[in-house]
Amino acid sequence: MLMSIFSLHILPPLAIGRLGSASEPVDNYTIEVDPEHPLDFRKIQGAETLIVDEASGEISESRIPATVTFKQAGLIRPVAPFLEVFAQTDADPSKPLEALTLTLLEQHGLGEGDVQWRVSVANRKVVRRTNQADDLVEAKVDWFSTHDPKRVEGRCKNFIAPDCFIDFGRVRYIKPNQTYPQIRLRFTPSQGLIYGPNIGDPDPNADPGLYQVPLDRQIYDKTKGWYKFNPAPEPSGPFAPPSKPTFYNETMPPSLYAIIPPAPPWLNNNIAISRGYLDDACDGFVEVGLTLKDGTRLESSARICSGPPVVVPDSLFVRNLADDLEQIIEGPKVSDAEPYEVVQAKAEDIVRRASETVRFLNVAIMNGNSPQGRPPLGFDTMPAGEAFTTDRMERPVMVPATVDTLAILALHGQVLATLRSGAMPWFLRLMRLPEEAADFTDEGRRKMPALMCGADSNYLALTHRQIDTIRVASDKLAFSPDLKWDTKDAPATQEAPALTPRNRTAHVNYAAAGNPVSSRPINAIANCCPGLEMDFRAVWRRIFEGLVMREYDNLVIAVDPQQDDPGKLKLKGHRLLRVNGVKVMAQAKGPDPSDRFGSVVLSTEDDQDAVQPLEWSNALAPILHSNAGEPVTCDFTADEVWDEQAWWDDDAPPPHVTFKFKLRPFFDGETAVISRALAEAGELTQGLCSPWQNDYRECSCYYWAAARPDYVNVEPSSNGLSQGDNWLQKVHTGHYVPDDYVDSRMILYDDLFEHWEKWLRTVIRGRDVRDTSEGKR
């Protein structure tokens, strides 16, 4: 009996394209762990790569590359992911999805031409800062069924002419054939170009050394607001009053973009005069549609985004986007009934990723040690950022003489060994809980992961679910003496979860044919500060129906005028304190100078209560999992917060008001697609730098191992400590050059704007890849 088609799904629900100007995309590859040497570098393994015939648009062949290369003739190879279509052919949602193929279409009297695609993406980096609607750059490719490539053209009302556009890349409906019959689309991102204002010849008022955008890419009208845009400074404290009305429109700080002169704004009295640069990164939606013979219209969508290349392809970050999405789907707790082998493997992977992150981190520098006799520059270290936040003297996290990258790597080896031995309960005491992010005591700062920053700009915490995974793994070994764990017990490959309509975890982790690991959420930064592919904090700003929030400080910046309760309409300018009794604020505490074992509230002139908002991905984890689509109880400060106490003391709570707001579902329907109601096209990337190359200089956060390493070519020196290169050094000599925004030995802003493909070196097994076209070091 012929089954009907009940729904369509595009998988993966989020595909990451990566920019590059080489003519051929990166081959498909996986990264595999050697079970005998679990903390060694992962092995890059070539996987089935689909070759698309340029003339016909069909897959002509597949191959498995013997060597995976990431550059071609000196140019970075883009990552161009495929998106596959699946059908629900059984009314029972527990039954597996079926690939939508030519055969399945024919069984329903349909053909490949009945499948339609639509694409809409945007770049909101400029409009987010200027608050001028005409600065929105968006691209729409209306419904199509042909197999020729469609250029995704980003247009903007403030461009100098209607025919000007930013090239966001190509989408192509891959023509199915008998060998490769599945319905799929490919997204090929753009080249990583920079666009600018129509200043013609070099601006006579600008520094002649500034990189000038080529004339054929000068498309922005220099009379409009983005060119030489200079916003008022951000409020000096978490609860300072707004400096101008647009304060409410800022959804995420800071205003990072290419400026005149080329330096961090804090080196120039916080004056940030924009050069008017735009980039070709984007995010948005791919939609597929199919009309059945009975007239039923089926549609489905997925998200796409484009971002920088992965430069350390054999490593993963300690907390990635897949971790945060899994916590939203599965909840913050791991079931004790979870199979031992699965939990153990996941716990080991967390420790392994921590090691991989530290491997590319100059721990001594991030500790605040003084390299070559001078302190690290600016806010490049956690102690410096902490001192700025708390108005206290900068102090190292660890004892300077004891801190070295190789020593910390050895410690991770010990942690893995104790995890396998069942002696891990002590390790849990060293893990930073999410609510402890603002604990600036020595004990609090030294918890793991150490010396890394989270989305709240405080010390990074893993997700609740990651921490609980380690707990469950430890408990199973500690209290079940018959259990044994050995490397040979580890499964060679993890069994793929059942791909059913409602199994969102399987959707998120789905590996489409031909897609390298760098296109997946496990290779993207999550709710950390803030990431290069996307700023995941953007998903929280409309999580409460009727409100627009600024997640980084819990500020209500807009209220839906349709709210039926007059009290809700007055919430603009108030701050969220608790949700269903769960605090979304913490109080910063640090050492008491008069008591080495005590702590005091770290009050400042601007923030008497030392209030530190918590990052929502963790703070709201249990509520997101259990209350999606339901009303939740929200406590807000009683008035605009710069006039009163905001810290919530359980014994003496501040004046507050309480309302119920519906918590929006995080995903669209029964898919794993982040809801459009939470983030429209362009909003996942709007908080990142413009152009994106600027992020490598502005965000000196040296712990995004895959995307932005710090310490490379590391090896023991004659004194037993580590030596190596700063990844941003122009010449790698084996001697670390401390970062400096004017040091000609470093890759500076204009070097990246003009020749980013030259300077973004690929690192494999911890070392520079020298001959990238041949894949040799």
Task: Produce the secondary structure layout.
Blueprint: E1 7-11, E2 14-18, E3 29-32, E4 43-46, E5 49-52, E6 59-63, E7 71-72, E8 75-76, E9 82-88, E10 98-99, H1 102-107, E11 115-123, H2 125-130, E12 137-144, E13 150-154, E14 166-174, E15 184-189, E16 194-197, E17 218-220, E18 259-260, E19 273-274, E20 278-279, E21 283-291, E22 297-307, H3 321-330, H4 340-359, H5 363-366, H6 382-390, H7 405-421, H8 425-428, H9 442-445, H10 464-478, H11 504-508, E23 547-550, E24 555-559, E25 576-579, E26 582-583, E27 585-587, E28 589-592, E29 595-601, E30 611-613, H12 616-619, H13 621-626, E31 631-637, E32 656-662, H14 695-698, E33 711-716, E34 722-726, H15 749-759, E35 763-764, E36 767-768
Parallel strand pairs: 2-22, 16-17
Antiparallel strand pairs: 1-9, 3-4, 5-6, 7-8, 9-10, 9-15, 11-12, 11-21, 13-14, 14-15, 16-20, 18-19, 21-22, 23-24, 25-26, 25-31, 27-30, 28-29, 31-32, 33-34, 35-36
Helix pairs in contact: 4-7, 4-10
Fold and architecture overview:
- The protein has 15 helices and 36 strands.
- The radius of gyration is 26 Å and the shape is globular.
- Helix 4 (340-359) packs antiparallel against helix 7 and helix 4 (340-359) packs across helix 10 (464-478).
- The chain has 4 domains: 7-192 and 280-307, no CATH class; 194-278, no CATH class; 321-489 and 688-768, no CATH class; 536-662, no CATH class.
- With 777 residues, the chain is an alpha+beta fold.
- Mean pLDDT is 85; it is low at 236-249 and 772-777.
- Strands 1, 9, 10, 13, 14 and 15 form a 6-stranded antiparallel β-sheet that branches. Strands 2-22-21-11-12 form a 5-stranded mixed β-sheet.
- The longest helix is centred in the middle third of the chain and has 20 residues, at 340-359.
